[in-house]
TrEMBL record:
GO terms for biological process: translation. GO terms for molecular function: structural constituent of ribosome. GO terms for cellular component: ribonucleoprotein complex; ribosome. It comes from Campylobacter novaezeelandiae. The keyword Lipoprotein does not apply. Keywords: Ribonucleoprotein, Ribosomal protein. Belongs to the universal ribosomal protein uL29 family. The keyword Ribosomal protein applies. The gene is rpmC. It holds the Pfam family Ribosomal_L29. The lineage of its organism: Bacteria, Pseudomonadati, Campylobacterota, Epsilonproteobacteria, Campylobacterales. This is Large ribosomal subunit protein uL29. InterPro entries: Ribosomal_uL29, Ribosomal_uL29_CS, Ribosomal_uL29_sf.
């Protein structure tokens, strides 16, 4: 996901996306601990997506 894809969304959509990504990160971490995760790079990508969404939310709050 790129920042340009999420910068045009409203605050409610961003909050929903953020919650979904955090739940996904939790499940990926659980899979990593139980040796069920095949690609550990997914965790890195989800963390970057969370950061991008958080940035978009902070830009919306500023104005």
């Amino acid at each position: 996901m790129k920042y340009t894809e999420i910068k045009d969304k409203n605050a409610a959509e961003l909050a929903t996306m953020l919650k979904e990504k955090k739940v996904l990160l939790f499940t990926l971490r659980q899979k990593l601990k139980t040796m069920q995760l095949t690609n550990p790079n997914e965790i890195r990508q989800v963390k970057k997506d969370i950061a991008r969404i958080s940035t978009a939310i902070s830009v919306l709050k500023q104005g």
